[in-house]
Fold:
Amino acid sequence: MSYSSEVIAQLKERYADQPEFIQAAQEVLVSLQPALDAHPEYQSQALLERLVEPERVIMFRVPWVDDKGQIQVNRGYRIEFNSAIGPYKGGLRLHPSVNLSILKFLGFEQIFKNSLTTLPMGGGKGGADFDPKGKSDREIMAFCQSFMTELYRYIGPNTDVPAGDIGTGAREIGYLFGQYKRLRNEWSGVLTGKGLSYGGSLARTEATGYGAVYFLTHMLAEKGEELAGKTICISGAGNVAIYAAQKAQQLGACVLTVSDSSGYVYDPDGIDVATLKNVKEVRRARLTDYVAARPRAMYHETQRPWGEKCDIAMPCATQNELSLESAQALVAHGCRYVVEGANMPTTLEATTYLQEHDVFFAPGKAANAGGVAVSGLEMSQNAEHLSWSFDEVDQRLQSIMASIYTSASTAAKDYGHEGNLVFGANIAGFLKVAEAMMAQGVC
Ligand code: NDP
Structure:
């Protein structure tokens, strides 16, 4: 049995109740085998066994009072997964589905993603099973203050720097930051995704979506193609989806769909990003309002967009939203590129099917790394007490995405899997972390 298979078997036994974590770990470990064969010292130093176990898992009670005066209790988490190459870094997810398995999968992915950005950031993730939907601003503030009242003990600008994720946007980061500052009596860059008036970075809001599209342009170039004139189906209608749609349309593509958890919108004229932003960012409303404002757009309740014909698919909503059946439909309609804007949106079976059917596939840990990369740039600006212009940050983002593409495609080639960006991204991200862990001894 290979070293990676041995560790996967141990994980399946130990964490049988954590399916998302097992899925993420399996996807990564299988692809590392060529690198492990080249470095037998990793097995003798039990490197994988250490890598798959978080350095620290923090779980805590989050009590808060709702607008009716009733006490609500949520469960909060922070997974400090790996700090070999820098302070723990990763978002906070606020969604009713949040549990240990989902946060461990996200924290594990984050280790490799952060390593790929070339910036010194370790891997972490956190959040709570709190649903921000339908809550008043006061309720959101009460929750965030209570959450930070426990979390502040474990984080800091050189220890652990959380950020946004599903359900955690600029409003939540603001409340979390205010409470941290109050408890510590200290202004520091402890969170990223901050507002521009208090240390946030220009282009952070746009970074994940823009970065995914920049990554896509390198994939297209590899095949001698360009983005202009291509059709794209995007899922999600949140931060990643909105800015992926905006950049893709700026570069001449036509984005046909966006979605939320209630259904998807097909707009034959191309998604109108200004209307979408107004519905989602300003009014926090549902996509039915988008359709009301765009007479030719159609709404498909409870469905996902993968049955539509497109050249490129960009899943930008959540994990496991693109199943084998969806992959089959995409291939049948001639889709040739799939770029993950979300984390692990494609199931393992669907990924294999796409790759076997000549679809050029980009894993989230490479394609969506632009968000954390600009978070890293926000940390640098905070540390230097400086702010860079939008263009300066965007230029750096473009060069980081180019470098991630080159490292993933080069590693894939060097380790015998040319064109397989899943293998390439995992191996390239892993090698840097592995080298740091080896240098730091058994810890
Ligand atoms: P947002 O909360 O801004 O948006 C999430 C979108 O996905 C919403 O449209 C939401 O719809 C939809 N969605 C959420 N859960 C489900 C579900 N179970 N089924 C269908 N649709 C769903 O989050 P982000 O855009 O920030 O994040 C999207 C993905 O990108 C996540 O996987 C996240 O981890 C990943 N990511 C985000 C980064 C960032 O910088 N924001 C960086 C890297 C990765 P609804 O409103 O109906 O819930």
In short: The first strand starts at residue 56 and ends at 65. The pocket of NDP is lined by residues 164-167, 208, 236-241, 260-262, 316-318, 321, 341-343, 368, 371 (CB under 6 Å). The chain has a mean pLDDT of 97.
